[in-house]
Request: fold
Amino acid sequence: MRHGTKADLLDLLQKTSPGAVVVDELPPVDAEILDGAAIVHMLPPRTIGTKTIRDYAADVFAPYVLRRLGNVQRLDIIWDRYLPDSLKQSTRDKRGTGERRRVSATTPIPSNWQSFLQVDSNKAELFEYLAEYCIKELHHEKVFITTIGTSVVSSDPHTDTSGMSPCNHEEADTRIMVHIADCVKQGSEKIAIRTTDTDVVVLAVSVLCQIELDELWLSFGTGKSFRYIAAHTILSNIGESKAKALPMFHSLTGCDTVSSFAGHGKKSCWDVWNVYPQLTDTFINLSNTPTQMSSDDFDVIQRFVVLVYSRTCEQIKVNDARKQLFSQGSRMIEHIPPTEAALLCKSTASVQYIKGCVFGDRLSLQTPTCQAQQTGDGRQVMMGGVLSGHHYPRCRRYVRNS
Reply:
């Protein structure tokens, strides 16, 4: 699988105009939502005094939560879930593996924190412990909410959590959007998200088309790359139609489980999108029709890919463009567009990715689960027909318009 650079899309969104997308300070907000896994990665144990998991919870994690809670009326922490045979597993495996450790209050802090966090079972048990610790031990007049598995628990017993639970989302990315909708329902007008994932930015901009919210901020990144991003300003800059199409663009041009185009990253694809507006309606159509692709929509996708590889080629079909570009003798085989069959499978994978595996229906509590099965030759196959790893998916034929 060919991995691109997801962060390139964030740079492109930050450069949209006329509104300023990045600011130096976060304005006051009513509620904040934290990506729990990202926070744990950002808060390693102290070298002195932190001997057990309970020490980590009491001396490192809980104080951070209290500081964040002091600035808002409501604080939510959303945790990833780790499902067997997940399509995300191949992406996680590339980050390396560590040693399995049973997590309890008395478990000694591992010597290598990042290696410890590379094991899904370690993270699942640690996240559950931290969530339960904060609910039991933190005493505050503000509302504190955390996910535990598919459930949602609040520090305030009077809080109605029915709009957030039970929720089967695997990724915190999409589950954050469910909690944003609930914050709005409870009266929040300005919300902040703490994350380090470009996918969350894409989702945040897209979901603003579905809810009424004055301001949605993202406290994004770490260290020197940290910044405050105004998702509502990005929406204003690019327009509602392009915002609705953004997840499909992100998926098709390369994400965690869909390969990017050879030699062409987000920027070159974005430049073509800007001069090929027909693509926006097609992306929206594909986001709304998870099982079939019309010939008209696929023709638009083909023309888009042709333009990505050659701005001067007048062909519509990728197979015709391949023949023309290769016969001119100036292109190596890896520098011409993919075949029509490969592109159809890639497009289908992108559609199923945003409809079920990761993006899904951002505000629904229940989304289709995408699981992978191993084939005899070692490939990963999505149940329902989509392959991940180094192979394109088996896919349904697109429907010819009569």
Q: What stands out?
A: The chain has a mean pLDDT of 86.
